[in-house]
Every structure is written in structure tokens, then in C-alpha cells.
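Notes continue from the previous slide.

Worked example: a multi-chain complex. Inputs as given:
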Amino acid sequence: MLIKNKKASDMVPKVVIFILLNLMFIVPGFIFISRLGTGDDFFEKKEVRRIALSIDELKPGSTLTIYADELFERAKKNNFKGEAIVVNYTSGYLALRVKDGAGNNFLFFNSLESGSIFVDPANKIIIVKK
Amino acid sequence: MLLKNKKGDERYLSPVNIIIWIIVGVAVIIGASIFFAVQGDSRKIEATTLRDKIVDCFSENFDYSEINKTDFDIYAKCSLNKNALNDYDIYYFNVSIKNSDKKISKSISGGFGSFAVLCSYQEAGKDEKNFPRCSKSETRIFDKKLNQEFELLVLAASNNMGNAIKE
């Protein structure tokens, strides 16, 4: 009933504009949501927590190997030349960056001796000794 | 009533339609932001890990006389980072040891003391987004030297939202 008394030629531009406007609205929405979930910022936030929580669970006398392929791949892709992981053993501070910028940091409360965390970008692993 | 006297195809491009898009867009942005913020919230996991770490360390070869000493250092005993737990006001723990008379004979606390109150609020059903997440346990432990059973109550709390240190 919508197209009653309308010629096809009258309808086409408005329908096309309508579809284009819809796409202009929907496409940025999809890009926004997908970037939130897979972007570098969210990855840094998620990964620094994963590593810090793994460190917290470590028991004395044990060694933990954390596979961090995505971390080093993202840093490489972003051409990030700095240190992907920075640790301050005194304050229990762990900072992670895969691109230039502030990165994300998280505290761990497990007491570690200086040098307990060994970052191996070549093998894309992080070794933590307790 | 805004659509009165409009033909079908004209409705597509009406201001009402644009307002609806804006409302839906804002809702999607808010929803997605809340979803990903919750995904990154690990406070409850941290509180539970801290609690378990303390329970494990006390349960293993429990020696009340050692713990009851005035110079007992829980950070050294349980391998906890004193600076991380005390300097940033984002963690709290309390260990209470009850003897066979059900009386608290020893209590050890660390971190941000106000969290104890906020945890008790949560237990009473009053919760807010910025309150710490708490984890509590009661464990029976046995002291072989004294041949006596004790009750170990541990409360741990975390409000670590990340980026606690601004470089």
C-alpha cells in the first residue's frame, strides 16, 4: 500500500537515499562495536589483567609460562619499538603496551623477586619464576 | 501525529526516523561500553585469589604460636607484596583466628581499612558500582603442636580497576 499512486521512477531515489542513510548509520555502529572488542586498547586492558592475575595465582617454587602470541604480534603490527611489558617488582606494577601511548597497567600482589619475569619476544612467551 | 498527511515513502526520511536512529545509536554505544567495562572487571577474581592465597598459607603447617607473635609478618609468611597491598587503597584483607571458645584470639589486617565496612554493607544487600568486590571464607584448621582446632576467617577485597598508577 505504501507505493500506491507512485510511479517507480519517483520511488527509487528516496528508497536509495533511505538505504544509504541506514547504511551510514549501521556501518559505523558495527565498526564501533567490533573495535571495542578487538581493538588494541581493549586488548591491552584484557591482557595486562590476564598476566597479572596469572602472577597472583603463582605458588612458591613454581614456574609459569604465559603464551602471548597476540601481544607480540600486535606490537609488531603496530611497529611498536618500546618494551611491551614493564614490571616494577617493588610496587607490584605491571604495564603493557602494544602501541605508542599510555598503555594499560595493573597491580599484582604476589611478592616476586627482581628479575622473576622474563619476557621472550622471539618465542612469544613470558616466563615467571616464583 | 507528526506523520499526518505523509505518504508512505516520505515517512522514511522524516525527522522522527532520524531521532529514532539517534536514540538507537546512543543505546548501542551505552550498551556496548557497559558490556566491555564489565568484561574488564576482575575485582571479584582478585579478591578470591587473595583470600585463597591467605587461606592456603595459613592452612599449611598451621602454627598458632608463630602467628601469635608480635613480630609476625603476614607479608613474608604468605609471600604478599606489602607495597601493592597498602600503598594504593585498592586492596584489603583481614585474617581472624577463633579459638575453641569461638572467641577471636588473633586478628591481622592490611590494606585500605574502609573496605571492611563496605564489604559488610554488601553482605547486608547494599551494593554500589564503586564498592570493592569482597570474598570471605571460614576454614577449620588444626595446630598439631598445640593439638587444638582453630577457625580461620579470611576476608579479602579488591577495588583494582586497572591503571591505578598514573605514569
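Summary box: The interface with chain B takes residues 1-4, 6, 10-11, 14-15, 17-18, 21, 25, 29, 32-33, 36-37, 42, 45-46, 48-49, 53, 56-57, 59-60, 90-93, 95, 102, 104-112, 130 of chain A (CB under 8 Å). Chain A has a mean pLDDT of 86.
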